[in-house]
Amino acid sequence: MTNGKNKGNKWERDVANLFSEHYKNTYKIENSFRRNPDSGSFVGGSNSKRVQTHTNLNFGDILTPDDFQYVIECKSYKEAPSFKSLLTSNKQLDSWFSQASQDADLANKKPIVIVKYNRTPPVVWLNEKPDSYLIEYNGWYCNTLCNFLKD
User: Fold this and answer.
1) Cβ proximity of 106 and 72 under 8 Å
2) pTM, 2 dp
3) Average pLDDT in the 42-48 region?
4) Which domains can be identified in the chain, with CATH numbers?
5) What is the SS3 assignment for 111?
């Protein structure tokens, strides 16, 4: 049995490394994206009041360059949601989107949620409509991570 926390931490490191490699010519620094040791927990949820008393806070699961426009929330799960839940209601996605939106609002950036399910290519959820996407759910647009990085 896989430890869920370790799996999530590994996915966050993988995303940070992928983004660092992808944006290395943009930021001209090695490892410009890093896993957030707090993974958003320091200011997430009920801890959001800490924004008023602490400076130089990091939001989301990935530490990003200051001018990167997104706060990144990473999720790694065994199974993808059912198609039916994408047509009606999916509490798990709603929770992730709420968490990402809260952190992005506090950071004055845009939220993205990057999800990896077992045996499935990773996907990115954005709350702004891109030129191409796979599916829309409650104002969030899903695309493959590969396609997101091409745009």
Assistant:
1) no
2) 0.84
3) 49
4) 4-150 (3.40.1350)
5) strand
